Automatic annotation (TrEMBL):
It comes from Sphingobium indicum. This is Putative 4-hydroxy-4-methyl-2-oxoglutarate aldolase. Keywords: Magnesium, Metal-binding. It comes from the Bacteria. Pfam families: RraA-like. Substrate binds at residues 91-94, 113. GO terms for molecular function: metal ion binding. Its cofactor is Mg(2+); a divalent metal cation.
Length: 219
């Protein structure tokens, strides 16, 4: 199925990361990417993971960006740089090409630079932080399309990625239907609570009626 016709991606895009996080907790799945945040608070993205594992540069050094033309439109580039904060792994050339090619966004366990361009283009980049020091001759891609670690969460190629102002979650492909169904149930219950309170019901009563305190309980 193509990324543009992927109904699971569309369902994930309609849900916020907080709701998806609650669904993951209910199911006992670790999918919250700790400390990974948008370089702009308005960034949002959803798509399937195209993963890369990076490491310290060899002698002679390898490259960090030559993979970009192999990423399908609609995918999310997911880069495990081991949380490294002293050298970047993403900058303006990659942002421009990714944006032009219709890639959904980039998630980095590490840092990037050139935030002005990603904000100007509206291309979503989620990372631990940003700083200007280049990764050239310091970092290189070791493997592509392999299992990686992003903020303590396991990400496999093809897993669902969702990012918004609260951060990033990964939904393992093997569990995506049950996670999405649970998140949609939680979202509906919280909407019922809001509507009931707008109609004059006490919050504690609305929460009891719609089983708020059980929504995230592990099943």
């Amino acid at each position: 199925m193509s990324e543009t016709n992927d109904m699971a991606v569309a369902r994930a895009a309609r849900l916020d990361t907080a709701t998806l996080s609650d669904a993951l907790d209910r199911l006992g799945i670790v999918g919250q990417c700790h400390k990974i945040k948008g370089r702009d608070p308005e960034f949002r993205m959803a798509g399937r993971a195209f993963t890369l594992l990076c490491g310290p540069a060899s002698t002679p050094p390898g490259t960090v960006g030559d993979f970009i033309d192999d990423v399908p439109p609609g995918a999310v580039i997911v880069i495990d740089n081991g949380g490294r904060e002293d050298a970047t792994i993403w900058g303006d050339i990659l942002t421009e090409i990714a944006h032009r090619r219709g890639i959904a966004g980039t998630v980095i366990d590490g840092i990037n630079r050139d935030v002005h361009l990603c904000r100007t283009l509206g291309y979503p980049v989620f990372s631990k932080d940003h700083w200007m020091r280049t990764g050239k001759d310091r970092v290189q891609v070791e493997r592509m399309e392999c299992v990686v670690n992003i903020g303590g969460a396991r990400v496999a190629p093809g897993d669902l990625m969702r990012g918004d102002p609260d951060g990033v979650v990964v939904i393992p492909r093997a569990h995506e239907e049950v996670v999405l169904a649970a998140a949609e149930e939680i979202h509906a219950a919280e909407e019922h609570i809001r509507e009931a309170c707008r109609g004059g019901m006490r919050l504690d009563e609305a929460r009891r009626q719609f089983k708020y305190h059980q929504l995230q309980t592990r099943q």
